What we know:
With 425 residues, this protein is mostly helical. It is built from 16 helices and 7 strands. The relative contact order is 0.11.
Amino acid sequence: MHKTPPPPTPGPQDRHLPAFLMVLAVFSCAAGPGTGRVTDPATLSRQQGVAGPAVVALQAGRFDEALRAADQALSVDRNNPGAHAVRGLCRYKAAMHQIRIDAETLVASGVIGGINQQYLTFSLGNAEAALAAVEADLAAAAAEPAFALELCPACWEVDWNGNGRIDSSDRHLFEIEEDAAGNRIDDSDPRRRPTFRLDLGDLYWARALISFQRATLDLLAAYRLSDLNAMLGSIMSGPKPKAVTLSLTDPGKVARARKRILEGLAHADRTRREYLAETDDDREWVPNPRQKSHPLPLPVDQALYQTWEGVVADLGRLVKGQEGLSLQAMAQLGKHKWQNPPRGYLNLGALLSQPRDITLDLAEIESVGDQTANAEQTLRHVLGSGYAEHMRPSPILGRMERMRKEMDRGEESMQRKLRYLFWLN
């Protein structure tokens, strides 16, 4: 199953929502790569017939109808992979719509009277439950390794930006606006609205996305964010507080976030392996280096897949605390070059396995300047066990520095780099 293509130019604020919608629209069709499992033709035909109305509604962008049809299909065949995939898609659309509404409400109330912790806790709990249901559907769909669906997301007529009407930004959201050379594709060119043949690898990409989003919700729910109200109030009026402490209220949620991140990384690596195992070559969303049929103007090579594999492995070791981020190297990544950058390492694994209250001494932070001793002292106070004097350095910063140099030399633009990051989750 293939990810929704990120448009070449920025669009509506909740672009990530429709991007995932494309990913989930899958149903069983033929044997999946690398599994050795062959779907019985009679079972396959029956499953396709049962899920057919839900799939047709999805292809037309009628998500409410697709959800009802998927529920009906599952009442007849509870293990139907196509119906599970369609239901997961529709549930995700509804969840992200509610998350957007809650976020807008929280921002509006925060500007007026500060963060409403009770409403935030309620919203985060509902969002987690909704995404858990989506993951359950994806896992059920993934039990059948053979997925395929032809889908044209740019053909959907949906009010993605939530302004009450279908406007040009909605219609252009999924369109391919530029070719491989960066030239604008004419509005009448059919290349702007390609049909993709989605398959199994993208289903794992979708599960990775859900895992990372659930980890984010867990981290937000673990702390009392209303503790920030004093600092937020000082922005509008009043004296600035000397320090801000973000209280940890549920360490278990931090542990769960760590688990979700590792699950997401495992799904991301499974995505890569599924893509590499593909032997077809038919309108691929993410091609492997051997495939040439792909509507998106972002070709890949073996080096990109090797980088992908390396980054996922790097992140896994960081989350497990096996490696750390060199603070000296991190300080020099930006435009400001330190004469004496702070030493030590950011131990992300310790931050996740030994969470605590986060205290920011604002006066101390402002006094850091370019003084190494001040910076290291501040980092120790803020990070606690997340600051380590000695660790095995992660190679991921070296990869980032290489990317920066490539951009400085004009070999690739930041826009293109970001496209690849979104594209490969």
